[in-house]
Amino acid sequence: MIPRIYIPGDSGALALGAEKVAKAVRAELAERGIEAKIVRNGSRGAYFLEPMVEVATANGRVAYGPVKASDVKSLFDSGFLTGGHHKRWLGAPDKIPFLAKQTRLTFARCGINDPLSLDAYKSLGGLKGLQNAVAMSPADIVKHVTESGLRGRGGAGFPTGIKWKTVLDTTGDRKYIVCNADEGDSATFADRMIMEGDPFVLIEGMAIAGIATGATKGFVYIRSEYPHAVAVMNKAVEVARKAGVLGVNVLGSPNAFDMEIRVGAGAYVCGEETSLLNSLEGKRGVVRAKPPLPAIQGLFGKPTVINNVISLASVPVIMDKGAAFYKDFGMGRSRGTIPIQIAGNVKHGGLFETAFGLTLGEIVDDIGGGTATGRPVKAVQVGGPLGAYFPRALFDTPFDYEEFAKRDGLIGHAGITVFDDTADMLKQARFAMEFCAIESCGKCTPCRIGSTRGVETIDRLAAGIEPEKNLALVTDLCNTMKFGSLCALGGFTPYPVMSSITHFPEDFKPAPARVAAE
Ligand SMILES: Cc1cc2nc3c(=O)[nH]c(=O)nc-3n(C[C@H](O)[C@H](O)[C@H](O)COP(=O)(O)O)c2cc1C
Ligand code: SF4
User: Fold this and answer.
1) What is the pTM for the complete model shown?
2) What is the pLDDT of residue 138?
3) By the 8 A CB rule, do 416 and 364 touch?
4) Rounded CA gap, 388 and 428, in Å?
5) NADH-ubiquinone oxidoreductase 51kDa subunit iron-sulphur binding domain: which residues (predicted)?
6) What is the DSSP letter of 92?
7) SS3 of 49, please?
8) How far is the CA of 236 from the centre of ligand 2 (A)?
9) How much is the pLDDT for 462?
10) Which atom of ligand 2 lies closest to the CA of 436?
11) Could you tell me if the CB of 154 is within 6 A of ligand 1?
């Protein structure tokens, strides 16, 4: 059997030099006259070990990482094709602690094989959920998804089954499934990893959603900054069509479902569902007032399911292993698993899928390994640019929608950004307001004007001008934005601002005191 070498083609690994490694491996194989198959897999998500090269040996896979092109010669000299020891040797990939500690349901296959091999997908249990779904009634599929407790992973945490039921119960000559792959939150890359590393799980989830609700057409709206994901998804849709997974008779059943990939033009607000629909329709990405809900009048005025990539990609395992199996993981009303994306100033950055319930401290200190700089952790922003900053004092908060809400925070798309003690929280608060001012769609005044006034007021605070008055003004502005904005961009910007002020008051002291403290 010719040796198989796995070198990730995922854009995260490519950014860390995977292409150079692949080139060096090819050159070394040619020079040594060795015949081997190079498979470009996705990433398993342990980005601190990327590029992570794996070889298939008689005793299973052996991983090496992070591999540099300059390591390749010595890897061959160490006999890495049969798992030989080397300074980059990591052993069996599923025994690497960062990966071994995970509960991978949605990401069970991600990064293991060539993402475009449908055979590889099926060999690891792919399509079983869809096979079960085509044999069920739409109402039963919806019941199953509802009973699993799955909630939207895009940010709002709305129960997926209830959304699907609304679309199923609404009549329409056409219905749509729209997958939100805009993934605009800072520190998030779960959607990208799925699209580049296991695209068929998303296609399978969308086909199940179509059959469950009577929708025959799906769109995946991908941010323009994800060219690799766009390319993989386009190819995967073609493969799925040829294999009869998509088309007029999904898996030979009477159900029709097909889909297309669309690329956004680059606006954070286009991740908001109604703005996304406008963008998909070729209009400016401005938020629509609700009602009507997209489930009743969505894309082109038709009943539409809009779900995040991870929500849809979690459906196949639910339809394969059952609602009770999925629901068994998690805590409270947060059921199943959540792919936590650990980023920022952190030692072990990457994607960690686990049941809900780990504390923030466990995630940051134990899994993330603390800061990359080795300095103390000062703050962790959870849930993207609209998420609150958590101080160490709140590290006992369990990763759960309700527990985070109780502490004026949110889980969002489950991205966390770690900051060490050099972070200036006044600057972070200013950044939140500035981000909102830049990304605001402009439809409502509290967000459009409030965010700009917010930047100006924080600047006055930084300059030590009337500190008490300006601090009161920022608080007042935040309340107006929170309660008066049409969507969560204006409505949630107060979270990072107010959490900075509440938990790190020393950073908002008048300028002379700040300068003296420095
Ligand atoms: C400003 C803003 C940006 C958003 N960006 C995203 C995004 O990038 N991806 C996403 O899935 N949801 C995003 N959302 C949430 C969506 O509006 C919507 O709740 C989600 O797509 C529904 O899917 P889910 O129920 O599967 O989470 C955003 C919301 C707001 C207000
Ligand atoms: S809150 Fe901001 S982004 Fe949302 S609708 Fe209003 S102006 Fe647009």
Assistant:
1) 0.97
2) 98
3) yes
4) 11
5) 426-471
6) S
7) helix
8) 35
9) 94
10) 2
11) yes
Residues in CB range of 136: below 8 A, 6 or more apart: 144
Closest CA to 8 of 118, 111, 108, 119: 111
Is the CB–ligand 1 distance for residue 273 below 6 Å? yes
End-to-end CA distance of the chain: 63
Backbone angles phi, psi at 178, to 5 degrees: -115, 125
Report which secondary-structure segment, H or E, holds 259. Answer: strand 258-263
Amino acid 145 reads: V
Which residue's C-alpha comes closest to atom 7 of ligand 1? 271
Residue from 274, 436, 443 whose mutation best tests the ligand 2 pocket (most atoms within 8 A of CB)? 443
Q: What is the pLDDT of residues 31-64, one digit of tens each?
A: 999 999 999 999 999 999 999 999 999 999 999 9
CA angle (66, 339, 264) in 5-degree steps: 90
Local structure of residue 472 (DSSP, 8 states): H
User: In whole angstroms, how large is the CA radius of gyration of the chain?
Assistant: 24
Question: Distance between CA atoms of 504 and 110, rounded to whole angstroms?
Answer: 39
Residue 78 gets which letter from DSSP?
A: T
Report how far residue 314's alpha carbon sits from residue 137's, in angstroms, rounded to the nearest whole number. 20
- Could you tell me the two tokens for 242? 């040829």
Q: Where are the alpha helices (DSSP H) in 440-466?
A: 445-462
Q: Which helix (H) or strand (E) holds 223?
A: none
Token couple for 337? 């698993």
pLDDT for the residue numbered 514: 58
For 199-250, the pLDDT digits (tens) are: 999 999 999 999 999 999 999 999 999 999 999 999 999 999 999 999 999 9
Instruction: Specify the 3-state DSSP secondary structure of 430.
Output: helix
**Cross-strand bridge partners of residue 54:** 6, 63
